[in-house]
Amino acid sequence: MLIASILIALCVFILFGVPIAVALGLVAIGIMWITAGTDLFVIMIQRIYAGTTSFPLLAIPFFILSGNLMNTGGMTERIFAVAHMIVGRIRGGLGHVNVLASMLFAGMSGSAVADAAGLGLVEIKAMRQAGYTPRFAATLTAVSSTIGPVIPPSIPFVIYGSLANVSVGALFLAGIVPGVLMGISLMVIVAIVAKRQNLPMGEARPPVRIALRILGDALPALAMPPLILGGIFGGIVTPTEAAVVAAGYAFLLGKFFYRVLSFAELPSILWESGRQTAQVMFIIAASAPFAWVLIQQEIPNAVIANLFNLSREPWVVLLIVNVVLFVLGMFIEGVAIIIIAFPVLLPVMMQIGVDPVHFGVIMVLNIMIGLVTPPVGLCLYVVSEVSKVPIGEIAAEMWPYVVALIAVLMVVTYVPALSLWLPHALGYGLVR
To answer: Three-state SS for 201?
Structure first.
């Protein structure tokens, strides 16, 4: 009964346009008041403080800042140029470039919104100039941006690792293969669409001299993923410190190497980064007491019992959990889903023998799909704003790509080795 009341209350608030962070906080206050009067309100303040002062969460503002610095400092254009040189000459080449550029950008930013807003602007402009329809360009830009938080670094992995007490480094490693599979699956759909719609052929590969110049110009930007990941896995920096290094490196490149970034632009970049950080941290702050209430009311135990009443087969439970996460992703922002769902679903996963690192990949991949599914797909709104293409048109064109991403999700869900072999091979202890 309590579970139903919580869900109904959340749905009512969301339907009336209440921000998700406010809705979570109001529901938490309501449950505390009903169960113990005002005595628990002091715990709410404590949980808000504890939920937002975890050291790994410091990575969030710096990864956001690094993404904004890259978008302003000329790095996104050079990443796009390299991707164009590699795959741009085949039919529908700019579609493949769009996906590959997002995969390269994913190794630097960790934010789908940064990809959609920054790199997306470059991609959509180039595709329109080459004769692609605005609808196709916008759709592909939205779906390819979902790769960003799966290939490390990743803001959602930082949040999940902090909350679930799981190694962020192991999560970063676990996301590499699934992220690459996402890119390959989208490229397969692009190839099919290119053949059916007779999309334009790309330009011929440039002469070696020009190709070397393009690669040399982009090499400092492409060095960022090895710098970040090498520092983390080499034991030189923590993921949080790596985020600071990434932001500093992006600033130095944009200002002193590419000479695109000016000091006059820094206040607006810092303001936008602060605004985006505040949005994420507000949700985390409101979700912390909400998660505490769920645990205090033993709701995870009730969910486990109800799920096991349906089936004790691990594959069935995983399917149900994926469906639940997919539906949540259609209506709730991804960060909120992680914070709401992990205290409820992680015990279920442990009961059926799913490694928490593997479940982290399943959860993040699932909520990335939610970023492009209406009615609350954040990347849909960002790309619609950038491209001036109505959200309805993008959503109508998107279903083959979403199906491809769901197929990858299913493969990653039922083949744990795709996520776990790399962190295990590099010595990260995994739960057995």
So the answer is: strand
> Given a cut of 50, is residue 431 above it in pLDDT?
no
| Cα–Cα dist 177/36, whole Å | 47
Closest CA to 348 of 311, 374, 379, 377: 311
Phi, psi (deg, nearest 5) at residue 43: -70, -35
Q: What percent of the chain has pLDDT over 70?
A: 93
pLDDT in tens, 201-225: 766 677 888 888 888 888 888 888 8
For helices 2-15 and 299-310, give the axis angle rounded to 10 degrees: 100
pLDDT value at residue 287: 77
d(CA 103, CA 101): 5
Helices and strands: H and E segment counts in the chain: 24, 0
Among 5-19, 150-164, 178-192, 238-252, the range of highest mean pLDDT:
178-192
Helix (H, G, I), strand (E, B), or coil: what is residue 26?
helix
pTM for this predicted structure: 0.84
Neighbours of 94 (CB within 10 A): 30
Q: Are 183 and 103 in contact (CB under 8 A)?
A: yes
Listed as own residue / partner, the contacts of 48-55 with beta carbons closer than 8 Å and 24 or more positions apart are 48/285, 48/286, 48/288, 48/289, 50/288, 51/284, 51/285, 51/287, 51/288, 51/289, 51/291, 52/281, 52/284, 52/285, 52/288, 54/162, 54/163, 55/240
Owner of token pair 């959990």: 321
Rounded-to-integer distance, Cα 123 and Cα 132, Å: 11
Beta bridge partners of 91: 201
At residue 190, the pLDDT reads 92
How do residues 110-164 score in pLDDT, each as one tens digit? 677 777 777 777 788 888 887 888 888 899 988 998 998 899 888 889 889 888 8
The rounded mean pLDDT for the chain is: 83
Contact 224, 67 (CB under 8 A): no
Cα 44 to Cα 20, 53, 290, 314: the distances in Å are 17, 14, 9, 35
pLDDT score, position 188: 94
Best CA proximity match to 317, nearest among 356, 355, 360, 349: 349
- Enumerate the β-bridge partners of residue 201: 91
Which residue type, as a one-letter code, is found at position 357?
Answer: V
